[in-house]
Write the C-alpha cells for this entry.
Amino acid sequence: MSRRSKQVRKAAKRGARKARSEYGERMMTRYYRRAAKHEFRCAARGCKVRQGEPMAYRPAGSVKLCLRCAEEDPFVAQQLYDSASWALSPAGKARVAA
Ligand SMILES: [Zn+2]
C-alpha cells in the first residue's frame, strides 16, 4: 500500500471517529433502516430476516428488528431513521419508489 493511500485512510478514520464522538450518543440510541448484512432473527418476535432484506438496527446493544415489528412499535417507529446506505440499497430504493 502506498504512503499516500495510507494517509487517506488515516484521515477517513479520524473523520469517522470525530463524527462518532460528536453525534455518537444520538446515533447509538436511534434505530436505522438498512438491508440486513446477515440472516438473523428479529428481537421482537423472532421473525426470520434474510440477508439483503430490510431491517431496523440500533447500535446501542446491537438491537436487530425486522422492519415490520419496528414500524408496528410506536416507540421504535418514532425514532426510526433511514441510514445513508439504506437509500442506496436495492431494498431501500424499492421502498422509496413505492
Ligand atoms: Zn419481527
Notes: Helices lie at 3-29, 67-72, 74-77, 84-88, 90-97.
